[in-house]
Amino acid sequence: MRVMISGGGTGGGVYPALAVVEALKARQPDTVFLWVGGKRGPERDLVEREGIAFEAVPGGPIAGVGARALISLPRIAAGTLRALGLVRRFRPDVLLMTGGWVTIPATLACWLSGVPVVILMPDLEPGGTIRVLSRVAARVAVVAPESARFFRPGQAIETGYPVRPALLRAAGYDVLGQPLGEAAATRERARKRFGLAEGMLTLLVSGGSTGARSINRALTTSLERILACEGDGPGCQIIHISGRLDQEWVQRRADELPPELAARYHPVAYLHTDDMALALAAADLVVSRAGASTLGEFPLFGLPAILVPYPHAWRYQKTNAEYLVSRRAALRLDDDRLEEDLAPLVCGLLKDGDRRERMAASCRALRRPDAAARVAEVLAGPVQAASTESRGKGT
């Protein structure tokens, strides 16, 4: 099978598609891939690091009017012409796209060329690009059944959120979501990696790869109070992923702590996948934004969460957070209430082990370790249908 993939702009559309790539390789080792993305996004480095061929095409957002639209339309046209050439040369059997305006040229090119289009929607609600391009898609793989209402009847298929293979292995699953019998990431390994104390509750705070300044400020303002929270033992310990932009001043704040508290506060700028897996395995509670990955990664590790949706973007993070809240797997904390409410919420959950365990159980119930394998099956459907139709025309 020859699979063209289009996604990028942020890591949110790249990582789940890479998980599907690994599932496809496990199912069909001779599968060939070509990734079509933007010229300036992070996708090229992420994709080429995995040994996948990458081609960049111009493009632009379809939303907006006036000067913005005048700039975008010629770029989309040029990108579509470039993508048409790539389709002719690569001859894909199917396109997998994950949304964002960088996917417009490849999607239009495949549609015009008669190549089936399958959308993988990482979030619970479609953005503008997916809303428009779903009209030309054969199937849409969605995280939860609630998302089916945005698409025509029978078009959406629930698969779950495809989690990165390294995190699957860390939680004890192979790339197809089958149990391995033993998790690669254990609390003992996490304690050694981060210097954590045994028998003490661990809070993980993360704002994503670039950090979240409002979360960083609220946490550092309340550090002494949160570190002194009595959970199942005296106080707690914190792994804080600050992002590179705030690393310097967060470290200065850490240096101001008394030695007995500083020993329990572990700020880092960024964690690569293996270390992130250890942090997730170590945590008893997490505070984070509500990006798409929370829908897959927190359930995989059964992590109760306090979710802080990013307020300066489209509503998808609020929708993601509300979904986990409605399933009693998380609490939502609005960004403008962080400094007032973060410490009381964290301390309240650290002190209430029964509530944390109920939230963890609810989170685990949403676990879909075989999501990438399910998306791989969805991709195979239109390919098989096209093959059957082709054979029928040949008889």
What does this structure look like?
α3 (67-90) packs across α4 and α8 (213-221) packs across α15. A seven-stranded parallel beta sheet has the order 3-2-1-4-5-6-7, sandwiched between helices. Strands 10-9-8-11-12-13 form a six-stranded parallel beta sheet, sandwiched between helices. The protein is built from 17 helices and 13 strands. The protein has two domains: 2-163 and 369-390, Rossmann fold (3-Layer(aba) Sandwich); 180-364, Glycogen Phosphorylase B (Rossmann fold), CATH 3.40.50. The chain is α/β, with parallel strands linked by helices and 395 residues long. β5 (117-121), α5 and β6 (139-142) form a beta-alpha-beta unit.
CATH structural class of the largest domain = Alpha Beta
> How many helices in DSSP terms?
17
CATH superfamily of the largest domain: Glycogen Phosphorylase B
Summed up, the domain count is 2
- Strand content bin: 5-15%
Going across the biggest sheet, name each strand in turn.
3-2-1-4-5-6-7
In sequence order, what are the helices and strands, one letter per element? EHEHEHEHEHEEHHEHHEHHEHEHEHEHHH
Helix fraction, binned, reads 40-55%
For the termini, the CA-CA separation is 23 Å
Average pLDDT, to the nearest integer?
Answer: 92
Q: Could you give a short account of the major beta sheet?
A: 7 strands, parallel
- Name of the CATH architecture of the largest domain: 3-Layer(aba) Sandwich
Radius of gyration: 22 Å
What ranges have pLDDT less than 50 throughout 5 or more consecutive residues? none
Number of strands: 13
Structural class: alpha/beta
Q: Report the principal-axis shape.
A: elongated
Reported by name, the CATH topology of the largest domain is Rossmann fold
